[in-house]
Structures are given as C-alpha cells and as structure tokens.
Amino acid sequence: MIQAGKSIWRRVSYWGKDGVHTKNQQRTLVLTNRISLLIAGFTLILCLLSVLSFGWIYSSQLALLFSLLFLLPMVLNRLGYLALAPMFLSMIISVASLIVSVVDKFDYFQLEEFQYFQFRLTILTASLFPFILFKLSETRFWIPALLFNFLCVIFYDPVHVWFGVGYYAMGFTAPNYHFLTYMTTATFFVLAITTFFLKRSFEKSEAANESLIAELRATSAELMEANVVIQQQQLRLSEENITLSQEVLAKNQQLTATNAELISHNNDLQEFSYTISHNLKGPLASITGLLGLVNEAELGPSNTPLMHHFRGSVQSLETTIKDLSNIIDTRNRITRLRQPIFFSEVVEQIKTQLTHDIEETKAEITCAFEDAPDLFSVKAMVHSILYNLVSNAIKYRHADRPCKVLIRSSREAGQTRIEVSDNGLGIDLNRHGQKLFSLYQRFHTHLEGKGLGLFLVKLQTEALGGKIKVKSEPDSGTTFVLTFKESETIQEQILLNTPVVKVYYDALIDALCTLWKGPHTNPQFEEVLVHSLEFIKTYRTPNWISDLRNVPYRNEDELNRIRERYSHEYTKAGIERIAVVVNPAYYSEPDYILKKEALVKAYPLHFYFAETFEEAYEWIKAAHVARLSLKNSDLPFQ
After folding, report:
1. What pLDDT is recorded for position 416?
2. Which residues pair with 595 in a beta bridge?
3. What is d(CA 167, CA 170) in angstroms, rounded to the nearest whole number?
4. CA torsion angle 160 163 165 169 (round to 10)
5. Euclidean distance between CA atoms 240 and 227, whole angstroms
6. What residues does 485 pair with on adjacent strands?
7. What are phi and psi of 472, to 5 degrees?
8. pLDDT at 502
9. Whole-number Å distance between alpha carbons of 140 and 144
10. What is the pLDDT, as a whole number, of residue 368?
C-alpha cells in the first residue's frame, strides 16, 4: 500500500515533464505539482470539516470549488504552460482567501471578530510562493505575483467594506482594528524580505555547488584518463625495470671501480700539489741562502750578470710557489670560520701595505661603507680579494690622469655588495671577457705581471659563496662588483666537541665560547687552553665566555699553574674580557670568593661572573656593541 502510494505520488509530481528541457524547469514543475496537490488536499479536508460543523453553507461550497481549482496548475503543466502554472498558483491562494473571507461573512447570523483575522494568515502565507516557485533571476514572474499578493493584503478591508461586510459595518467597535492592516503589511514585508535573502543565499550556494560538481566531474574525467595512461606506463615501466635493474647492477660495479680509481688519482694529485707548493719550499730556501753567501766581487765581470739572472729566476720561482700555495690553500679550505670584518679596517691595512705605490703614483683611494660597514666572512680571503683589486687598479692606471679608486659597499635583498671602481686603462671585454679570470692571463703586456691576481680574486670569491662581475671599456676604467650572501651560521661555529667540552665561535658577539660538559683532567684542560690560544691568535678575538656550571669542583691552584704558562700569550693575542658562568651552589661562600680571585689572578683582564649563560652572553654583547660603536667613530672615512 505504501509503495503504491509512493509510486502514485511520484507520477503525479512529474506530470507534464515531457515538455521540460532544463533542470530548473523540471524542479519548478515538480514543486508546482506537489504544492498544488497538497493545497487541494488540505482545502478538501477543510471543506469536509466545514460541512460537518456548519452544514452546506456558501463557504463549504467555495472550498470544494477552490480545492478543484487548485489542481489547475497541474493541468497547465501537462499542457506545457510551464511558466503560467506557478504564476497562477502564486496568486490563486490570495484570491481564494479574499473571496471566501467575504462570502464567509454572509453565512453566519452571528459573526466573531476572529473571522476578520484568519484569512489574512493564508494571504501572508501566499507571499512565500513566488520565491519558492521561481528563481530570483526570473523577475518578470515573481515580482508581479508578489505585488498581487501585496495588493490583496492592502485591500483586504476595502474589499470587505465594498461588499458591505466591513468590520465596523457588521457592528464591531474595536477602535484599534485599523492598526491590524499596518501589522499585516509589516508582517508581509518581513516575510518577503527574509525569504528573498534566504532564496538568494540558497541560489548562491547552489551555484557554487554546481560549479564544484562540474569541476569535480571534469577532474574525475581527467583522472580517469590519467589513470589509464598511468596503468599503461606502469606496464611499460615494469618491463623496463627488469632490463634496467640488470644494467644498473653492471653500471654500479663499473662506478664503484671508477670511483675508487678517481679517489686514488685525486689523492695523488692533491699530494703532488702539496709536494710542489710545500716540499719545494725547503730546497728553494736553501738555494736562496746559498746565494746570499756568494761574494759577487769574486765572481768576475763575466759571471756577475749570470748571478743577477740566477737571483731573478730564483725569486720568480719563489713567487710562483707562493702563488700556487695560495691557490691550493683556497681550494682546500673553503669552509673557514666566519668572523666580523670591517671594510674600513681592511682598506686601512691595504693602504699601509701599498704605501710606497700610493705615494709614488699619488693614487687617491675613496671609501663609502656607510650602507654596509661590515661583513661576516673569512677575513684573510676578503683582504686578499680587495688587495688584489686595489693593487691592480694602481698598477694598470692611466698615464694621462691621476689614479682614482672608489670602494663602496651596500646591502640589498639579503646580500652584501662591494664595488671597486677605477679610472685606469680598462679591459676590452669583447676580446678578453671569456678568459679574464683564467690562470696566467695578461691583457696589458707593457707592465710586469704574472696574470694571477684576478684568478685568485674569482677563486676566493666563489670559495666564499660569492659572485663576481666586471664592467669595463678600454680607456674608461674598470668596475668589479662582488656580491656575498649573508652568512646564516655565524653564532655557533664548532671548533672542538669532545665528551668533556664544546668550544665554538660566536661571530655575532665576536666571542670564543667554552662549555664544559663535566669533570675533566688537567691534560684535557691544557689541551683546550692551547686550542683556544691558537684560535685567538689567528682571529684576534677579544671576548671569551667560559661556562663551568657542569663542573662541580676544580683545583684552581693546579689549573693556575697551567694558565700561568700561557697567560702572557693570551693577553698578547688580543683577549680583552672574560665572562665566567659558575653555579654558586657548588661552593661555599669563602670558596666561591677564592675561586673568583684565582681566576682574576690567572688572567689580568676584565672579568665578569654570572650564574647563567644568558647573563654572561648579554654582558659580552653589551661590551661588544660599545666596542663597535667606538671603532666605527674612530675609523677614518675618505
């Protein structure tokens, strides 16, 4: 029975769908048919209840008529009037309510005030149907229907008055009855506006869903096509893998053998390079020493020129070996420690080294480091790069104008940029650009040189992770542009890490940090001391943090005897201040005081005692910042 009812309901709902062409038309048709059937059914039930309660009065007869009239939209859909059917349904309820309300007043000898309220509710309900049955874009349908229902609300009382059954004409005297029309009108607007926005929200969501469904369908189709291709490729790959696996095994065996051979050759070449650059230094020094013992006065006039040539050849050989040693050193030590480098200091050192050339040529060197005064990098390499560029600028100056060199720095996009410009002879990049940085290449033959400077500049720049470009024209000078990325790992550059101690360099505060992990022996202490001394000598680090919190007890008297052997070297190497981190809980107050006095006695420097590493770090940092400020104010800028 239930299944049969569902089948009938479905067939009635889709009555007339043969003429439907779009999804929206089909939905409107189904809604119209179902609403028509439901309203007709409810009206018929009300008709039966009215007959049982009041007899076969006019209202009951009209209810039966309208129950049949409410089925007319289904007939219109069946006939193909798909727009007229929902339009008729949207307005017929208001018309029926108004007619029955008027007729209802003639059916009773004694009216009740309620009879002037009940049919207003059905007219208000009719305000929902234009939004239910039409899309908001179909304004030519729902706006007239909504306007018609609104007129029924407004003229509800005037129609009753016109037929002589108005509220006051029927003997009622409530003074505020006319206010009911205002309330009904306001309710109509609230229902209409609320339903409008609800409908708009629904349609937006529906459009988004339809768009998403279309995209999903397209994506699904693409995925299905891709899946077919993938399956075909998998079949081919599985076949190729069988063949490739055998080839890979064979190639791996060949690569293993080749790699072992390359390692052997590389080791041989490196050993050969070191042999040339280092092992020849001894014999060359011996030859130089023997030449120094020769008395040229005893050689005679015929041998003296030969001796001068011999000395020149030995000096040239010595220079070549030094240059080769620099190249090998650069290529094999590209991960040196980064430290703060102040360009002004480096340039002042270069000026000192080139004092004779600068005075002789009256060269003018101008600096502009305000935008980027420093760089975290390898100081020896940066010094070598700038030295070679400045010395080349002086060497290859133009004879007709004073030599001028401009060195400036800037920061942009996380990089430090250094420019070295001169007004010298310049280089023809069209002829020599490709071999500009090659080994032993020279472009001005009227001056002495080995063609090694620019090769070293490029080699060292790239070893530091930088890039170099050149802009030059003959007779118009040359500009070298160096760019270096900002170093990321400058705060904890590990120097030593053993089970008892960790030693690292923090370039941000220019400090050597020694973190003891636990108890240690005197030889272990001396080993760390010597290691730290070598570092401070090399990098001239002024700050030192020693963290002793994990060392519950140390015999400072024994350690001081070790410190005394090196204290002079430490102060001479440039150490200025030491921050010591100690846990006072490990000591009694007298022992703590004695410990501090022993440390101060061992190193006659500026000491600071802290209970946490952070406290010591901030003290060193403040001193470092003050030192930098003083240094920047004292350094000359030209």
Report:
1. 92
2. none
3. 6
4. 100
5. 19
6. 415
7. -160, 150
8. 92
9. 7
10. 92
Instruction: Give strand ranges (E) for 75-234.
Output: none
pLDDT tens string 307-353: 666 666 666 566 556 555 555 554 444 446 788 888 898 999 898 88
Cβ–Cβ < 8 Å for 454, 480: no
Closest by CA to 204, choosing from 135, 140, 127, is: 135
Count Cα neighbours of 388 within 13 Å in the Cβ-side half-sphere.
Answer: 22
* CA atoms of 457 and 468, how far apart (whole Å): 9
- Residue 416 backbone phi and psi in degrees, to 5: -100, 130
Of 38, 70, 40, 64, nearest in space to 51 by CA = 64
CA distance 611 to 619: 12
**One-character DSSP codes across 566-610:** THHHHHHHT--EEEEE--GGGS-HHHHHHHHHHHHHHS-SEEEEE
The whole-number pLDDT of residue 635 equals 46
What would the DSSP string read from start to end of 475-512?
Answer: TS-EEEEEEEEPPS--S-EEEEE-SSEEEEEETTTTEE
Residues 6+ apart with CB under 8 A from 266: none
CB-CB contact of 407 with 367 (8 Å): yes
Gap between the terminal Cα atoms of the chain:
106
How far apart are alpha carbons 418 and 372 in whole angstroms? Answer: 9
Neighbours of 550 (CB within 10 A): 15
Task: List pLDDT tens digits, range 355-408.
Answer: 888 888 888 999 999 888 888 888 888 888 999 889 888 888 888 888 999 999
Tally DSSP H helices, then E strands, for the chain. Answer: 22, 13
DSSP 318-353: HHHHHHHHHHHHHHH-TTPPPEEEEHHHHHHHHHHH
For residue 458, the tally of other CB atoms under 10 A from its CB is: 20
Query: Which residue type sits at 236?
Result: R
* Separation CA 5–CA 210 (nearest Å): 32
Q: How far apart are CA 434 and CA 447, in angstroms?
A: 21
Give the residue from 550, 512, 543 showing the smallest Cα distance to 605: 543
Residues with Cβ within 8 Å of residue 98, at least 6 apart in sequence: 119, 123, 152, 156, 159
Residue with tokens 């893998």: 241
How would you class 403 by CB atoms within 10 Å of its CB: exposed for 0-12, middle for 13-18, buried for 19 or more? buried
What residues of the chain score a pLDDT lower than 50? 262-263, 265-269, 271-272, 330-335, 443-444, 446-447, 449, 635-638
- Read off the tokens for 627: 């030192």
Distance CA(286)–CA(299), nearest Å, equals 20
| Residue 76 contacts residue 88 (beta carbons within 8 Å) | yes
Enter the tokens of residue 173. 């005297």
Predicted model pTM? 0.47
Closest of 376, 369, 380 to residue 338, by C-alpha: 376
d(CA 459, CA 508): 26
**155 DSSP 8-state letter:** T
**380: three-class secondary structure by DSSP:** helix
